[in-house]
Amino acid sequence: MSALVEVDGLTKHFAVGESGLLRRPRGLLRAVDDVSFTVDEGETLGLVGESGCGKTTVGRMLLRLIEPTAGKVRFEGQDLLRLAPDAMRAKRRHLQIIFQDPYGALNPRMTVEDIIKEPIEIHGAMDGRQARARVMELLSRVGLAPEHARRYPHEFSGGQRQRIGIARALALNPRFIVCDEPVSALDVSIQAQIVNLLQDLQDEFGLAYLFIAHDLGVVKHISDRVAVMYLGKIVELADRGTLYRQPLHPYTQALIAAVPEAKPRQRRRKAAITGEIPSALNPPRGCRFHTRCPHVMPVCREAEPPVTSPASGHQVACHLFPAG
Amino acid sequence: MTLLSVRDLRVLFGTEHGEIAAVDDVGFDLAPGEILGVVGESGSGKSVTALAIMGLLPKPPSRIGQGSIHFQGQDLLQLGERDMRRIRGPGIGMIFQEPMTSLNPVFTIGDQLMETVRVHQHSGPKEQRERAVEMLARVGIALPARRLDDYPHQLSGGMRQRVMIAMALICNPKILIADEPTTALDVTIQQQILELLLDLRDELGMGIVIITHNMGVVAEMADRVIVMYAGKIVERAPVNELFERPVHPYTRGLLDSIPSLADERERLKTIPGTLPRPWALPAGCRFQPRCRWRVEACASTVPPLGPVREGHESACLRQQELAAE
Amino acid sequence: MGRVILRSIAGAIPVVLLVTLITFGLMRLIPGDVSAALGGITSTTEEREQIRKNLGLDEPVHVQLLKWYGGLLRADLGRSHFLGKDVTTATFERLPVSFSLSLYALVITLILGIVSGILAALRQNTWVDQAAMMFALIGVSMPNFWLGLMMIVLFSVHLGWLPTGGYVPFTQDPIGWLRSTTMPAISLALLQVGLLARITRSTMLEVLRQDYVRTARAKGLPNYLVIGKHALANAMIPIITVIGIIVSLSVSGAVVTETVFSIPGVGQLLTSAILNRDYPMIQGGLLFVTLMLVGINIAVDVAYAWLDPRVRFERG
Amino acid sequence: MADSAVAFDEAVAAAAEPERRSARWDTLRRLWRHRSFKFGLALFAIIVAAAVLAPWISPVSPNKLQMRLRFEPPSWDHPFGTDNLGRSQLARVVYGAQLSLFIGTMVVLVNAVFGTLIGALAGYFKQLDNALMRINDAIMAFPAVLLAIGVAAVLGRSTPNMILALSIVYIPRTARIVRSSVIVVSQMEYVQAAVAAGAGHWRILRRHILPNSMAPLLVQLSFLFAYAVLTEATLSFLGLGAEPPAPTWGNIMSEGRQYMREAPWIITIPGAALAITVMALNLLGDGLRDVLDPRLKIQQ
């Protein structure tokens, strides 16, 4: 067991609609419910799902940007959730994050140099000269020029800003980076540039990624293994070849079938699944997918499906694949 | 027979950088029952074109520099506001990218559907109601009569987009303009909406202009495709032709840079560089600074849109070479 | 809807508690010996003792606090020795005067403010817009007591059209009421008109940019429906909240305006209480007016929910 | 082929220069282009100049009594006329400007410090938010001028008491604005990035949150200056401001009120000066709002 990151039973319930004198929550939003997975050294785990499935919350909880309600996050065997604030802050140099919105992720009042340098300053990792040299090195590594260091974020295009965000994440040589929809906000012709850059950096520095996205094509391209989330739960997890060739969970199958392919001769007319995504505030009983599932059985409405492993390295949570 | 015919359209916007052409020399035709896909990235001018057809561009800062938009024998650009209003709804309907904000939050679905009928047709409240229920049923909303009294915030994004479609089609328009209709939706919902649009086209026979940045959506939907870059059309072809034998370097780059579910490539091909800013467009061909096939002439000559093969046009100086590859 | 009302009231409870506490504390903040200040330097120890007793200041603070809340529960805000009346009685006697004046000003405000704000937004960057905004700017910049004085100089002293001050109850003589309240109402309203016009304009501009307005146009709706129905219904939501602020402003404004025009309302009652150091009256009057405003804000909350189905449904 | 493609990519990337525009310079340029901001600035500069140059503009002391010169209407010798005690109104108005601007400035400074402090604490530390905002709400429930009157009545007449009274009234309003902008900024992803980088609360507040929440505060402070000047004059007018014969505009009008039939200039001129000052500040605030924070609504 030498996984770099081990997530076990991670759960987040948000209280919603607080009101009244006693501030009692009026409902519980089960954003993430009992999620477990591992990420190995140098590996990319893709995390896909539609809006409201909790994938972003999972990413934030790994870095304790959101405090989990329950569960464990082990990094190199150490439970991050038990670390005292100071110890956690020191640990943060090894775990970084790249955000979706290239406009909101950079402080508009800081220069590019200050933005990239900030993590180095916080951890007192280098003196001023070294830090500056490091900034220049990072800029050129992500495809920007040294003279860009003195500019402000608003002077750059979306793709260039995303490069700055990547340089900041790399500043302290982290071992693990959460990529939270890093290309979703970019134009199509820019997406590929960033995907390639992330892959190159991974090869060069041996980084491990948790790559969160809703675009199945991008996730498939960059990931070694892929986890599929639906309404706060992982419904299926497998290496990418298996997942895309032989998806087991009906939701995964539907998700893959729903992606419009750039092949006009292979048009299909029938929608893969009907119905809307239920609210996480009031998820369906039993299997959360049963309201939309084409293979629904009576048991699906009653019991939550257990996680089973029909093949080595392939996990699925569906009553079609009972344990044993 | 053409339904809509856009010629030499040029839309200008006054900005602090001076007047810029958001749409430059754009032209196309649409036949009844046809689906025309317009693809492009941000700043390509695809949405501005759609709003120009509807006469919904804010003036100022925008103005029409030149061109014509013929619909049913009249040039929409010459019509007054009053006449244009009779075109919107019964002539051309439109749906937008954000179903969450495109419906008025303080009125019920029923009210918003029925007022459209009330304004364009002389029918009583009962007929309006029946028509609204009929349209909701047609766009696949369960228990339509009950939904009439719902407010938009009570519906999910996919449902709201269905309501938007019902509203756009309630007066039987000849054309539906769909501006990124599924961009804000999840992929399983996107598929449902696209399927619905295809079914409605088959049933009602209207022409559809679908505007999107998603090559997959175009491939699933369109009969013919226009590719736009920085305000200009760079390529135009029937859908199979475009996806199988793209000519323009930009179209090719776009298709190559999409990671598809089927492909097993190690690296994606990319289009280098960034999109040009509208007020600092490159001279000559607007794509030339990012183009791998660039020659010297590209920086001085604006390539005209010209035929490559039967029904296939492109705007590149080297298109014959590229087509022969 | 009933739950919206209940929740607004529940939300106001802590505010009311704090407001009463602050008002109570205000009296105890008076620096130095109050009795000396009130009785004058020449007052004897016995006289000062009597003053302290009258004000209830001779007792320990917690007893004073208990008595204060006990009194509040019985709607007893204390007694003004200066007027020789209960504070509550004195306030209620004056209330109709202030109320009729404020209502008059509010009507002017709503009509002028909303109409000019909407016109300015619809004719953005034209002379209509500029004129309306110039007028609004003057409104928010003009000290209302000065405006009142200027009107007196012009219309009463020079032209002799209207009385310089005083008040005639509406029930006695409606024309007289109009003559006595028109100048005060205008001087009171001008600031509020300016404020409301500016907010209406910016809200309207914001709403006109919204997607659903574009949808309404794309459906081929005529302008009067796009603006009069789709835009206005949404613009009213923020405007309603501003009306709460405006009522609060008009209370402040009335204090000054009533003094300028010698109108015997609650504002003038308070001003004279201040000048006469009639502490129970100041305390009681301040609390009374503030609680009334809290009540108005509850009404605004309810109106807000009534206008906005999202609030009505999600929280109600 | 692969190598040349990479080289081409890099060449193109280097050619795609970001646009050169300094944020601060850009803001100043847009402010300068804003017509009403420029007009407001000019008006305000005139008032400030009058206040600063008071001793040169009017060599006569504002409190010098000249009983032979009572009720002189405005003339070449007495540009603003004289009052019932023969005092030069020019002197009283320009020295009044000094006092008004002094009080306004102090209130703005006190608000900037305490409003930011309370607002930032409430907005950033959720544990403090509830308690701080309840107190805020309670103070804001009182009508502004009325509360100022109450506090001023309790504290007694003096300039420092006036500053204190106005600060008590307006700090909660300022704090509320800072709080809401701090809450918005706290949710920005660059703040999350700083947390992820290991930054502590102090660093996050100082480098990320406060610099980005200042725009609404700046706008509020310029409107606040206007309210402070206006409220101060109102209180003085009611006899609750600085003790006479201090020449505040409110005091001048309060005293001149009884002579408004025979000597209307006594109240006309200081009132006009007050209105112009308030208008100048409103114009400045409008300009700042349009340029710094176009979405901000007018706040009371």
Task: Report on the architecture of this protein.
- The complex is a heterotetramer of chains A (324), B (325), C (316) and D (300).
- In chain A, strand 7 (176-180), helix 6 and strand 8 (208-213) form a beta-alpha-beta unit.
- By secondary structure, chain A is of the alpha/beta class.
- Chain A is globular and about 65 Å long.
- Chain A has helices at residues 55-62, 85-91, 112-122, 128-141, 158-170, 188-205, 216-222, 240-245, 250-258, 298-302, and strands at residues 5-16, 27-39, 44-48, 70-75, 78-79, 95-98, 176-180, 208-213, 225-230, 233-239, 307-311, 314-317.
- An eight-stranded mixed beta sheet of chain A has the order 6-7-8-3-9-10-12-11, sandwiched between helices. In chain A, strands 2-1-4-5 form a four-stranded antiparallel beta sheet.
- Chain B is α/β, with parallel strands linked by helices and 325 residues long.
- In chain B, strand 9 and strand 10 (232-238) form a beta hairpin.
- Chain B starts with a strand and ends with a helix.
- The longest helix of chain B is centred in the middle third of the chain and has 18 residues, at 187-204.
- The model of chain B has no long low-confidence stretch (mean pLDDT 92).
- Chain C is an all-alpha fold.
- Chain C contains 13 helices and two strands, in the order H-H-H-H-E-E-H-H-H-H-H-H-H-H-H.
- Classes of the chains: A alpha/beta (324), B alpha/beta (325), C mainly alpha (316), D mainly alpha (300).
Question: What's the SSE blueprint?
Answer:
The complex is a heterotetramer of chains A (324), B (325), C (316) and D (300).
Chain B: E1 4-15, E2 18-30, E3 35-39, H1 46-54, E4 62-71, E5 74-75, H2 81-87, E6 92-95, H3 99-102, H4 109-120, H5 125-138, H6 144-147, H7 157-169, E7 175-179, H8 187-204, E8 207-212, H9 215-221, E9 224-229, E10 232-238, H10 239-244, H11 249-257, E11 306-309, E12 312-314, H12 319-324
Parallel strand pairs in B: 3-8, 3-9, 6-7, 7-8
Antiparallel strand pairs in B: 1-2, 1-4, 4-5, 9-10, 10-12, 11-12
Helix pairs in contact in B: 4-5, 5-7, 7-8
Chain C: H1 2-28, H2 34-39, H3 45-55, H4 61-73, E1 79-80, E2 85-86, H5 87-122, H6 127-141, H7 144-158, H8 174-208, H9 211-218, H10 223-260, H11 266-275, H12 279-307, H13 309-315
Antiparallel strand pairs in C: 1-2
Chain D: H1 2-15, H2 23-33, H3 35-52, H4 54-57, H5 89-124, H6 126-141, H7 144-155, H8 159-186, H9 189-196, H10 201-212, H11 214-237, H12 249-256, H13 265-292
